[in-house]
Protein backbone atom coordinates (compact mmCIF):
# COMPACT_ATOMS: atom_id res chain seq x y z
CA UNK A 1 0.00 0.00 0.00
CA UNK A 2 1.40 3.40 -0.93
CA UNK A 3 1.87 5.85 1.93
CA UNK A 4 -1.21 7.87 2.63
CA UNK A 5 -1.84 11.55 2.92
CA UNK A 6 -5.25 10.96 4.46
CA UNK A 7 -6.97 7.81 5.67
CA UNK A 8 -10.53 7.98 6.96
CA UNK A 9 -12.46 4.86 7.97
CA UNK A 10 -16.03 4.49 9.19
CA UNK A 11 -16.24 8.19 9.98
CA UNK A 12 -19.41 9.27 11.75
CA UNK A 13 -20.55 12.67 13.01
CA UNK A 14 -23.75 13.43 14.81
CA UNK A 15 -24.87 16.99 15.54
CA UNK A 16 -27.63 16.65 18.13
CA UNK A 17 -30.14 14.36 16.43
CA UNK A 18 -28.76 14.93 12.97
CA UNK A 19 -26.33 12.44 11.38
CA UNK A 20 -24.03 14.53 9.20
CA UNK A 21 -21.67 11.60 8.44
CA UNK A 22 -22.88 8.02 8.59
CA UNK A 23 -19.78 5.88 8.09
CA UNK A 24 -17.49 7.35 5.44
CA UNK A 25 -14.30 5.72 4.13
CA UNK A 26 -11.88 7.88 2.17
CA UNK A 27 -8.19 7.37 1.41
CA UNK A 28 -5.92 9.85 -0.34
CA UNK A 29 -2.56 8.53 -1.49
CA UNK A 30 0.61 10.59 -1.36
CA UNK A 31 0.40 13.22 -4.12
CA UNK A 32 -3.11 12.21 -5.14
CA UNK A 33 -5.75 14.80 -6.07
CA UNK A 34 -9.19 13.71 -4.90
CA UNK A 35 -12.40 15.62 -5.53
CA UNK A 36 -15.08 15.38 -2.85
CA UNK A 37 -18.36 16.12 -4.53
CA UNK A 38 -21.83 16.39 -3.12
CA UNK A 39 -24.84 18.67 -2.70
CA UNK A 40 -25.12 21.26 0.05
CA UNK A 41 -25.46 19.56 3.40
CA UNK A 42 -23.87 16.30 2.21
CA UNK A 43 -21.18 16.49 4.91
CA UNK A 44 -18.16 17.70 2.90
CA UNK A 45 -17.19 20.53 5.26
CA UNK A 46 -17.78 18.38 8.33
CA UNK A 47 -15.47 15.70 6.96
CA UNK A 48 -12.80 18.27 6.16
CA UNK A 49 -13.01 19.93 9.57
CA UNK A 50 -12.68 16.55 11.26
CA UNK A 51 -9.58 15.83 9.14
CA UNK A 52 -8.13 19.14 10.36
CA UNK A 53 -8.96 18.41 13.97
CA UNK A 54 -11.41 21.32 14.20
CA UNK A 55 -14.44 19.11 14.78
CA UNK A 56 -14.54 16.00 16.97
CA UNK A 57 -15.86 12.87 15.23
CA UNK A 58 -18.60 10.77 16.82
CA UNK A 59 -16.94 7.59 15.57
CA UNK A 60 -14.40 6.18 13.13
CA UNK A 61 -10.71 6.60 12.42
CA UNK A 62 -8.79 9.51 10.91
CA UNK A 63 -5.08 9.61 10.09
CA UNK A 64 -3.72 12.72 8.42
CA UNK A 65 -0.22 13.46 7.10
CA UNK A 66 1.64 16.48 8.43
CA UNK A 67 2.20 19.21 7.66
CA UNK A 68 -1.13 19.89 6.02
CA UNK A 69 -2.74 23.11 4.82
CA UNK A 70 -6.39 24.08 5.10
CA UNK A 71 -8.60 26.63 3.41
CA UNK A 72 -11.97 26.93 5.13
CA UNK A 73 -15.17 27.38 3.15
CA UNK A 74 -15.91 30.64 4.96
CA UNK A 75 -12.87 32.59 6.08
CA UNK A 76 -12.02 36.21 6.63
CA UNK A 77 -8.61 37.80 6.98
CA UNK A 78 -8.32 41.14 8.82
CA UNK A 79 -9.17 43.91 6.35
CA UNK A 80 -6.21 46.08 7.34
CA UNK A 81 -3.64 43.32 6.60
CA UNK A 82 -1.77 43.41 3.31
CA UNK A 83 -1.39 40.24 1.25
CA UNK A 84 2.21 39.96 2.42
CA UNK A 85 1.26 40.46 6.07
CA UNK A 86 -1.36 37.68 5.89
CA UNK A 87 1.35 35.32 4.70
CA UNK A 88 3.84 36.54 7.36
CA UNK A 89 1.22 35.81 10.01
CA UNK A 90 0.69 32.28 8.69
CA UNK A 91 4.41 31.69 8.41
CA UNK A 92 4.60 32.47 12.13
CA UNK A 93 1.62 30.26 12.91
CA UNK A 94 3.05 27.29 10.99
CA UNK A 95 6.67 27.92 12.00
CA UNK A 96 7.71 28.25 8.35
CA UNK A 97 11.19 29.71 7.80
CA UNK A 98 10.52 30.32 4.11
CA UNK A 99 10.75 34.10 4.54
CA UNK A 100 10.16 36.61 1.75
CA UNK A 101 11.16 34.07 -0.90
CA UNK A 102 8.32 31.70 0.05
CA UNK A 103 5.80 34.57 0.24
CA UNK A 104 6.79 35.91 -3.16
CA UNK A 105 6.60 32.48 -4.74
CA UNK A 106 3.17 31.76 -3.25
CA UNK A 107 1.74 35.12 -4.34
CA UNK A 108 3.05 34.42 -7.82
CA UNK A 109 1.45 30.96 -7.84
CA UNK A 110 -1.98 32.48 -7.16
CA UNK A 111 -1.37 35.42 -9.51
CA UNK A 112 -1.21 38.05 -6.80
CA UNK A 113 2.43 38.94 -7.38
CA UNK A 114 1.57 42.60 -7.99
CA UNK A 115 -0.56 42.85 -4.84
CA UNK A 116 2.02 42.38 -2.08
CA UNK A 117 1.06 45.64 -0.36
CA UNK A 118 -2.66 45.57 -1.22
CA UNK A 119 -4.89 45.42 1.84
CA UNK A 120 -7.42 42.63 2.17
CA UNK A 121 -10.25 45.18 2.40
CA UNK A 122 -9.32 46.47 -1.07
CA UNK A 123 -9.41 43.00 -2.61
CA UNK A 124 -12.30 41.39 -4.45
CA UNK A 125 -13.71 38.18 -2.97
CA UNK A 126 -11.94 36.25 -5.70
CA UNK A 127 -8.58 37.82 -4.84
CA UNK A 128 -9.15 37.02 -1.18
CA UNK A 129 -9.90 33.43 -2.10
CA UNK A 130 -6.65 33.20 -4.05
CA UNK A 131 -4.82 34.71 -1.07
CA UNK A 132 -6.51 32.04 1.04
CA UNK A 133 -5.05 29.39 -1.24
CA UNK A 134 -1.58 30.91 -0.87
CA UNK A 135 -2.09 30.90 2.89
CA UNK A 136 -2.96 27.20 2.83
CA UNK A 137 0.33 26.46 1.06
CA UNK A 138 2.56 28.21 3.58
CA UNK A 139 5.09 25.79 5.05
CA UNK A 140 5.07 23.37 2.07
CA UNK A 141 2.30 21.03 3.25
CA UNK A 142 2.13 17.40 2.08
CA UNK A 143 -1.66 17.58 1.99
CA UNK A 144 -4.03 20.43 1.21
CA UNK A 145 -7.62 20.39 2.41
CA UNK A 146 -9.54 22.88 0.27
CA UNK A 147 -13.18 23.53 1.09
CA UNK A 148 -14.92 25.06 -1.94
CA UNK A 149 -11.84 27.08 -2.95
CA UNK A 150 -13.37 28.39 -6.17
CA UNK A 151 -16.83 29.45 -5.03
CA UNK A 152 -16.08 33.17 -5.42
CA UNK A 153 -13.90 32.94 -8.50
CA UNK A 154 -14.71 34.05 -12.02
CA UNK A 155 -13.69 31.77 -14.92
CA UNK A 156 -10.21 33.34 -15.03
CA UNK A 157 -9.73 32.73 -11.33
CA UNK A 158 -10.92 29.14 -11.68
CA UNK A 159 -8.38 28.61 -14.42
CA UNK A 160 -5.69 29.95 -12.09
CA UNK A 161 -6.75 27.43 -9.45
CA UNK A 162 -6.76 24.60 -11.99
CA UNK A 163 -3.22 25.53 -13.04
CA UNK A 164 -2.29 25.70 -9.38
CA UNK A 165 -3.67 22.22 -8.75
CA UNK A 166 -1.65 20.90 -11.69
CA UNK A 167 1.44 22.52 -10.19
CA UNK A 168 0.71 20.90 -6.82
CA UNK A 169 0.44 17.55 -8.57
CA UNK A 170 3.88 18.10 -10.12
CA UNK A 171 5.20 18.84 -6.64
CA UNK A 172 3.62 15.68 -5.23
CA UNK A 173 1.26 17.50 -2.86
CA UNK A 174 -1.93 15.56 -2.08
CA UNK A 175 -5.19 17.51 -2.30
CA UNK A 176 -8.72 17.01 -1.04
CA UNK A 177 -10.85 19.35 -3.13
CA UNK A 178 -14.39 19.94 -1.89
CA UNK A 179 -16.61 21.35 -4.54
CA UNK A 180 -20.00 21.19 -6.10
CA UNK A 181 -18.54 22.17 -9.48
CA UNK A 182 -18.50 19.05 -11.60
CA UNK A 183 -16.32 20.47 -14.35
CA UNK A 184 -13.61 21.22 -11.82
CA UNK A 185 -13.23 17.65 -10.60
CA UNK A 186 -13.70 16.23 -14.08
CA UNK A 187 -10.75 18.23 -15.37
CA UNK A 188 -8.19 17.95 -12.59
CA UNK A 189 -8.92 15.15 -10.14
CA UNK A 190 -7.28 11.71 -10.11
CA UNK A 191 -10.25 10.34 -8.24
CA UNK A 192 -13.73 11.50 -7.35
CA UNK A 193 -15.77 10.60 -4.28
CA UNK A 194 -19.43 11.61 -4.30
CA UNK A 195 -21.16 11.86 -0.93
CA UNK A 196 -24.80 12.47 -0.20
CA UNK A 197 -26.48 12.73 3.20
CA UNK A 198 -23.33 11.58 4.97
CA UNK A 199 -22.67 8.49 2.85
CA UNK A 200 -20.36 7.73 -0.08
CA UNK A 201 -22.64 7.03 -3.04
CA UNK A 202 -20.01 6.72 -5.79
CA UNK A 203 -16.23 6.69 -6.06
CA UNK A 204 -13.65 6.13 -8.78
CA UNK A 205 -11.58 7.87 -11.42
CA UNK A 206 -13.54 10.32 -13.60
CA UNK A 207 -13.21 7.83 -16.48
CA UNK A 208 -14.54 4.95 -14.36
CA UNK A 209 -17.49 6.98 -13.17
CA UNK A 210 -18.30 8.31 -16.60
CA UNK A 211 -18.48 4.73 -17.79
CA UNK A 212 -19.41 3.53 -21.23
CA UNK A 213 -20.46 5.28 -24.39
CA UNK A 214 -23.48 4.70 -26.60
CA UNK A 215 -24.51 5.27 -30.20
CA UNK A 216 -27.60 7.27 -31.14
CA UNK A 217 -28.94 6.75 -34.65
CA UNK A 218 -31.57 8.95 -36.22
CA UNK A 219 -33.99 6.88 -38.28
CA UNK A 220 -37.21 7.73 -40.09
CA UNK A 221 -39.16 6.58 -37.06
CA UNK A 222 -37.09 8.55 -34.53
CA UNK A 223 -33.83 8.20 -32.59
CA UNK A 224 -32.71 4.71 -31.50
CA UNK A 225 -29.92 4.05 -29.00
CA UNK A 226 -27.38 1.24 -29.23
CA UNK A 227 -24.65 0.08 -26.88
CA UNK A 228 -21.09 0.53 -28.09
CA UNK A 229 -18.70 3.24 -29.20
CA UNK A 230 -17.24 4.81 -32.31
CA UNK A 231 -15.79 1.47 -33.47
CA UNK A 232 -19.28 -0.03 -33.57
CA UNK A 233 -20.79 2.67 -35.82
CA UNK A 234 -20.06 1.02 -39.24
CA UNK A 235 -21.56 -2.31 -38.12
CA UNK A 236 -24.64 -0.71 -36.55
CA UNK A 237 -25.30 1.40 -39.64
CA UNK A 238 -24.70 -1.54 -42.01
CA UNK A 239 -27.14 -3.71 -40.06
CA UNK A 240 -29.78 -1.00 -40.04
CA UNK A 241 -29.41 -0.35 -43.77
CA UNK A 242 -29.53 -4.10 -44.45
CA UNK A 243 -32.78 -4.20 -42.48
CA UNK A 244 -34.22 -1.55 -44.81
CA UNK A 245 -33.86 1.47 -42.51
CA UNK A 246 -32.84 4.93 -43.72
CA UNK A 247 -30.11 6.53 -41.55
CA UNK A 248 -30.29 10.31 -41.20
CA UNK A 249 -27.68 10.85 -38.50
CA UNK A 250 -25.32 9.09 -36.06
CA UNK A 251 -23.91 10.37 -32.79
CA UNK A 252 -21.56 8.72 -30.27
CA UNK A 253 -22.51 9.76 -26.74
CA UNK A 254 -20.78 9.38 -23.37
CA UNK A 255 -22.37 9.58 -19.97
CA UNK A 256 -20.82 12.53 -18.19
CA UNK A 257 -19.90 12.96 -14.56
CA UNK A 258 -23.01 15.10 -14.39
CA UNK A 259 -25.16 12.12 -15.43
CA UNK A 260 -23.52 9.98 -12.75
CA UNK A 261 -23.98 12.69 -10.17
CA UNK A 262 -27.64 13.19 -10.98
CA UNK A 263 -28.25 9.43 -10.96
CA UNK A 264 -26.50 8.78 -7.62
CA UNK A 265 -27.43 11.84 -5.57
CA UNK A 266 -30.92 11.50 -4.18
CA UNK A 267 -33.22 14.48 -4.81
CA UNK A 268 -30.72 15.98 -7.26
CA UNK A 269 -33.29 16.25 -9.99
N1 LIG B 1 -22.11 22.91 13.79
C1 LIG B 1 -23.18 22.27 13.37
N2 LIG B 1 -24.25 22.06 14.15
C2 LIG B 1 -25.33 21.39 13.72
N3 LIG B 1 -25.47 20.90 12.47
C3 LIG B 1 -24.45 21.09 11.62
C4 LIG B 1 -23.26 21.79 12.01
N4 LIG B 1 -22.41 21.82 10.95
C5 LIG B 1 -23.05 21.18 9.95
N5 LIG B 1 -24.26 20.74 10.34
C6 LIG B 1 -25.21 19.98 9.53
O1 LIG B 1 -24.55 18.82 9.04
C7 LIG B 1 -24.88 18.56 7.68
C8 LIG B 1 -23.63 18.57 6.84
O2 LIG B 1 -23.14 19.90 6.75
P1 LIG B 1 -21.81 20.27 5.98
O3 LIG B 1 -20.72 19.36 6.42
O4 LIG B 1 -21.58 21.73 6.14
O5 LIG B 1 -22.20 19.91 4.47
P2 LIG B 1 -21.56 20.43 3.09
O6 LIG B 1 -20.24 21.03 3.37
O7 LIG B 1 -21.50 19.20 2.22
O8 LIG B 1 -22.54 21.42 2.53
C9 LIG B 1 -25.89 19.61 7.29
O9 LIG B 1 -27.18 19.08 7.44
C10 LIG B 1 -25.65 20.73 8.28
O10 LIG B 1 -26.81 21.47 8.50
MG1 LIG C 1 -19.54 22.90 2.90
What order do the SSEs take from the amino end to the carboxyl end, as H and E? EEEHEEHHHEHEHEEHEEHEH
In terms of DSSP E residues, the strand content is 25-35%
Low-confidence stretches: none
Shape: elongated
Class of the domain at 4-66 and 142-207 in CATH? Alpha Beta
The hetero compounds bound to this protein are:
adenosine-5'-diphosphate, magnesium ion
What is the CATH superfamily of the domain at 4-66 and 142-207? P-loop containing nucleotide triphosphate hydrolases
Give the N-terminus to C-terminus distance in angstroms.
Answer: 38 Å
What characterizes the major β-sheet? Answer: 6 strands, mixed
Count of alpha and pi helical runs: 9
Give me the CATH fold name of the domain at 4-66 and 142-207: Rossmann fold
Total DSSP E strands: 12
Helix/strand-derived category reads: alpha/beta
Would you identify the CATH architecture of the domain at 4-66 and 142-207?
3-Layer(aba) Sandwich
Mean pLDDT: 93
**Largest sheet, spatial ordering of strands:** 5-6-7-3-8-9
